[in-house]
Amino acid sequence: MPISVLLVDDEQLVRAGLRAILESQPDIRVTGEAADGASVVPLVRRLRPDVVAMDVRMPLMDGIEATRAVLRAVPDPPRILVVTTFENDEYVYEALRAGADGFLLKRAGPAEIVHAVRLAAEGESLLFPAAVRSLAAARGGNARAREAMERAALTEREADVLRLMTRGLSNAEIAGRLFIGAETVKTHVSAVLAKLGARDRTQAVIAAYESGFVSPG
């Protein structure tokens, strides 16, 4: 089945450009469009897209609130990519903290856009880990995040897996680094997410940086 995508942006030209790029691929189809975040929840319920590519800044409801609304209202929600002009935008970081899975730069080339959508759909790799590290750097040493990490009580192997997750490695790449099977890595990743109360890898990585478990650089 092709990856289904919902486009959400208040600029029609941006939506048209993304549609043209994505629909040039045989494994991706755009199933709907919206001009504001306020329309996202009903469209997601009706269309059940695999990925939502959503502008972070919109006039009525921005991408942060729309992300929260989708995750709050929709069972088994889609992957969410926030679309932004600047990768170090605080709006982007707040959208990631709200539950978005990654972000896509508006200046990205067609190959990068397609790759980002595929990665988001797969859910086994972190999008733009260097940018996530820079966004998280200023939040390091957060006391609440540090306490949550301590309560998680990760095993040594789970800690190793989380450190490699923060570097953007996929399950297969982590398996190669640790000389264990990919299914074993998947089990460890699931355990890390559960212990941290994280929806996905992006949330776990944010927790790792904000708690001081790992440091940028």
TrEMBL record:
**Which residues belong to any copy of the Response regulatory domain?**
4-121
Q: InterPro entries from the entry?
A: CheY-like_superfamily, NreC/VraR/RcsB-like_REC, Sig_transdc_resp-reg_C-effctor, Sig_transdc_resp-reg_receiver, Tscrpt_reg_LuxR_C, WalR-like
Pfam families from the xrefs? GerE (PF00196), Response_reg (PF00072)
Q: Which SMART domains match?
A: HTH_LUXR, REC
Q: Which domain of life is it from?
A: Bacteria
- Give all residue intervals belonging to the HTH luxR-type domain: 147-212
Protease among keywords: no
Enumerate the CDD domains for this protein: LuxR_C_like (cd06170), REC_NarL-like (cd17535)
UniProt keywords (A-Z) are: DNA-binding, Phosphoprotein, Transcription, Transcription regulation
Q: Which SUPFAM superfamilies match?
A: C-terminal effector domain of the bipartite response regulators, CheY-like
List modified residues, type 4-aspartylphosphate.
55
* Keyword hit for Phosphoprotein: yes
Name of the protein: Response regulator transcription factor
Q: What species was this sequence derived from?
A: Streptomyces cuspidosporus
